[in-house]
Write a structure and sequence with these properties.
flat, 0% strand, 78% helix, 2 helices, mainly alpha
C-alpha cells in the first residue's frame, strides 16, 4: 500500500474539486432523482442550477488563471 502525497495539490484545484463535489454533483443527481419521481419542473430546475454552477466555476477558474 502506498501513501498519497497531497502537498502538491494547489489551493485552486482543491477549491474547484470541493465546489464540484459540494454544489454541482448533488444538484445534478437530485435533479435526475426528481425526474424519475415524475417531478419534471423541479428536476429540470436542479439540473439547470448544476449547469449554471459549472459555468460559474469555469468563469472563476478563467479569472484566476
Amino acid at each position: 500500500m502506498t501513501i498519497v502525497n497531497l502537498s502538491d495539490i494547489s489551493i485552486e484545484l482543491f477549491v474547484a474539486v470541493m465546489f464540484f463535489l459540494l454544489i454541482i454533483a448533488p444538484l445534478v443527481s437530485l435533479g435526475v432523482l426528481r425526474l424519475f419521481q415524475g417531478r419534471k419542473k423541479a428536476g429540470l430546475t436542479l439540473i439547470g442550477g448544476g449547469i449554471i454552477g459549472y459555468f460559474a466555476l469555469q468563469l472563476v477558474a478563467d479569472l484566476l488563471a
